[in-house]
Design brief:
single chain, mainly beta, 5-stranded antiparallel β-sheet, 1 helix, 11 strands
Length: 169
């Protein structure tokens, strides 16, 4: 299965601190573990801020469609390839109007996105929380270049992302 949790539309925010206390599963070819990401779509405008654990490691990304074309900026955090099976406190501190997004790992800023550095990729919409895990299965060929090819699990294997807690303020 591909589990996903999402906040209600009433939780849309332009500013805040979103945090998740999570144990990541082992990294697998073709698997995307998105322990914390923010997303919104409004009248064709889309915005997104992501933590995604993929074949390259823990990647932080911003996306926007406010110019009429999809634009994004992604960074793989240093030394994150071996984070599977480990527990982390991940956070997104964002102020969309001020043009600043901070990606936090265990309370420390791991990366900053500024609107002035990435004006076309910087989200403009109020965002809500998603927590998900999915694979580059048949029909998602676009994802294979980024994630690798999903090989499936044996009947005795299980992948789990454990969410120990979540908060937004």
């Amino acid at each position: 299965g591909a589990p996903e949790l999402q906040a209600p539309d009433s939780a849309l925010k332009r500013k805040g601190l979103w945090q998740i206390d999570v144990t990541l599963p082992e990294k697998r070819e073709g698997l995307c573990v998105a322990p914390l990401w923010l997303y919104a779509k409004n009248d064709g405008q889309k915005g997104e801020i992501d933590f995604e654990f993929v074949k390259a490691g823990l990647q932080v990304t911003i996306h926007s469609h406010h110019t009429g074309a999809a634009k994004s900026q992604a960074v793989v955090l240093p030394n994150s390839a071996d984070w599977g099976g480990k527990r982390f406190l991940l956070g997104i501190r964002a102020d969309i109007d001020a043009g600043l997004i901070e990606m936090l790992v265990d309370g420390k800023v791991a990366h900053k996105f500024r609107r002035t550095d990435h004006p076309e990729a910087f989200p403009t919409e109020p965002l809500k929380t998603f927590i998900s895990m999915w694979t580059a299965k048949v029909g998602l060929g676009w994802a294979e270049g980024w994630l690798g090819k999903w090989g499936g699990l044996t009947s005795t294997e299980r992948l789990a992302m454990v969410v120990h807690g979540y908060s937004v303020s």
